[in-house]
Design a protein that fits this description.
The chain is α/β, with parallel strands linked by helices. Helix content is about 35%, strand content about 30%. It is built from 7 helices and 17 strands. The strands form 5 sheets. Strands 2-1-3-6-7 form a 5-stranded parallel β-sheet, sandwiched between helices. Strands 12-11-10-14-13 form a 5-stranded antiparallel β-sheet, with helices on one face. Strand 11 and strand 12 form a beta hairpin. Helix 2 packs parallel to helix 3 and helix 5 crosses helix 7. Mean pLDDT is about 85; it is low at about 140-145.
Length: about 260
């Protein structure tokens, strides 16, 4: 990576912090490291006095509480790789700005995998930020604010009807046919590709999660970790096709959810 990454290690056991620092330095010798005492009090104080790093290696069990208490106080903007000897916090760890969840003892191969996952997410986030900035600049330079599609004209056998975009839960493509699924569960064939819909729909409300699905923010019921660093998304109405999000889309998806 062209940018020198700054990383902070928050660990309540000093020998474990030094060992982790040594392991990461072997993999990424150009990164800049700081070890912060592994307590909520000390970590919060450090973050109040210093610029947030790019990445935090964060032990879940701190000397005076747990990592989630620290996060709720300090609100760091950094990405996070959790380290812990226990696995019961995996789902809770996903709810914050986390990249990965490493069980102790930390193995070199597992650490390499997490660092590469961070770097892929970092690049994706930069691309998302650049795309978002370009959209803003495009709208500013336009004589009028960009208008997004609000309805579709649907061609029937003997009549025309309209479908309001606000009533659509999600769009999906199958066998080169695009369908809109409404909040009531009705399916309507749409004469547009998902690529074209992505250009015409409000990006604050709709997100292209993969090649097959374009989801409304209101359709998302649940998000869960899945195999191979993917996410599994449950929507309403329920989809008969499983909806997953690759790790390459993870950062931009989280940014969209949090906007």
């Amino acid at each position: 990576m062209t940018k020198s990454i700054s990383a902070v290690i928050i660990e309540d056991e000093r020998p474990a912090a030094r060992l982790l620092k040594s392991m990461v330095e072997t993999i990424r010798p150009l990164w800049k490291f700081t070890i912060v005492q592994g307590s909520i009090k000390d970590a919060t104080q450090w973050f109040s006095q210093n610029e947030n790093p790019d990445l935090i290696f964060l032990d879940i069990h701190l000397s005076d509480g747990n990592a989630f208490d620290f996060l709720s106080i300090a609100h760091p903007s950094s990405m996070i790789i959790f380290t812990t000897a226990y696995d019961e916090y995996a789902i809770q760890a996903f709810s914050v700005n986390s990249i990965d969840y490493i069980l102790k003892p930390v193995h070199q191969e597992r650490l390499v995998e997490s660092i590469e996952k961070y770097e892929n997410t970092y690049r994706s986030n930069l691309e998302f930020q650049q795309e978002y900035l370009n959209n803003i600049l495009e709208n500013i330079s336009s004589p009028a604010s960009k208008r997004f599609r609000t309805r579709f004209l649907i061609y029937g056998v003997d009549k025309y009807t309209t479908l309001q975009v606000a009533s659509v839960a999600y769009f999906y493509s199958e066998s080169r046919v695009t369908s809109a699924v409404t909040q009531s569960g009705a399916e309507v064939v749409i004469d547009f590709t998902l690529d074209k819909l992505g250009e015409q729909l409000d990006p604050n409300k709709f997100f292209r999660v993969n090649r097959q699905f374009l989801l409304s923010i209101d359709s998302i019921k649940k998000i869960e970790p899945y195999f191979n660093s993917k996410l599994l998304v449950t929507v309403v109405p329920e989809s008969r096709i499983q909806i997953t999000i690759s790790r390459e889309k993870l950062s931009s998806f989280k940014s969209w959810l949090n906007f």
